[in-house]
Amino acid sequence: MPGVGPEALCLPVGAVLALVTRSPLPLVAGAVAVPLTGRALRRRSERAAAERRVTAVAALCGAVAADLRAGRPPHTALGDAVEAAGWPASPDLAETGRLLLSAARFSGDVPEALREASRLHEGAHGLLAAAACWQVAVDGGAGLAAALDRVAAALRAEADQRDDLRAQLAGPRSTAVLLSLLPAFGLVLGAGLGADPPKILLHTPVGMACLVTGGLLEWAGLAWTTRIIRGAEGGTAKRTVAVEAPERRPS
Question: What are the Cα distances from residue 222, in Å, to 18, 39, 42, 47, 172?
Fold first, then answer.
């Protein structure tokens, strides 16, 4: 079915647990988990798409700079680079690719097209720096190829920094996942010792109070850890590309 993602599995899993434990609470929890899981998966997909756009913009700037050094006109170099990179057919860059291709092929306002394209999607902020370089080159006759090379280098440095940070945060992420699984391990251990944790937690007032309290503490711990990790990543993800604009030549 279109529009149904992996988060839909939460509902049947909750239904199975409800039948096994003879309690409606797992089914309710599964229904609540569907939108929450879907939102988390969408955020993860959006972050991955933004990272792919950063890489694609860096590659585009490098390709245009190489074509300019080979003596090709700027509009032609941009149009050919967009087509060669497959932007018009890419799910992440289709709208951006069509916009840039239209400006390049029909001698439109390329700096304005680049600025507009940079606002379409997260991760395309490098196009704003490319627009500034293009504008200065057109107005002042400065070297566009060297400026675009600097944009590409800045974007690649940003991607490298993000990858390094992600590697450093792998340990805290693993620790958070392990801690989140400890309650499930406790239930298995209790069942192995002869107790009946589902019956106590789902069918007695004291057990339900413990379940709610434990669930809230678990959520608070995961939310706190996730906030710390996202805060560390945000400094890299939101960093603006800074490039040294080419100097204008005296008219």
Answer: 25, 16, 18, 19, 11
* Helices and strands, number each (H, E), in the chain: 10, 0
Tokens 């199975």 belong to 16
CA distance 188 to 210: 17
Report the share of the chain in percent with pLDDT over 90: 30
Residues contacting 236, CB < 8 A, separation 6+: 158, 161, 162, 165
Q: What pLDDT score was predicted for residue 241?
A: 46
pLDDT score for 245:
46
Residues of the chain with pLDDT under 50: 1-2, 237-251
Going by the DSSP 8-state scheme, the letter that residue 8 receives in this structure is: G
- Dihedral Cα 96, 98, 103, 105, nearest 10 deg: 140
> Which token pair is 35?
């939108």
| DSSP-derived 3-state class of residue 92 | coil
How far CA 119 is from CA of 113, 133, 163, 167, in Å, comes to 10, 17, 24, 29
Q: What is the pLDDT of residue 97?
A: 92
